User: Fold MliC family protein from Ancylobacter radicis.
Amino acid sequence: MRQNLPVLTAALFVIGAGAAKAADHIVIPVPKGSSVITTKVKYTCDTMKDLEATYINAPPIALATVSFKDEYLVMVNVLAGSGARYAGDRFVWWTKGNTGSLYDLTKGENAPPIASCTQD
Assistant:
């Protein structure tokens, strides 16, 4: 049996004002008994003004929304040697401790991050 998480829906998938006239949302069912922990973090980056990430954990589900410049991404946690690595669209957001690196996969497999960030 699964339960719907309207709080997760509101926190995760409301597209910013101006992007849509009505709020868009999606409901993700999680296993019964899972609790949702949401953490919003702001980062200062070397190549852009700032980046905001919201981490949504409802084991075994781990998601992040990442917004920077004009981008809004919903990313899923993927295998990482250390830290937490999230992938969505052409981007990878990789965090360890209070730092994060944003990669654009179209730049090549061994390309440096397009932004190196530190948690505010």
Notes: The first helix runs from residue 6 to 13. The chain has one domain: 33-119. The chain has one helix and ten strands.
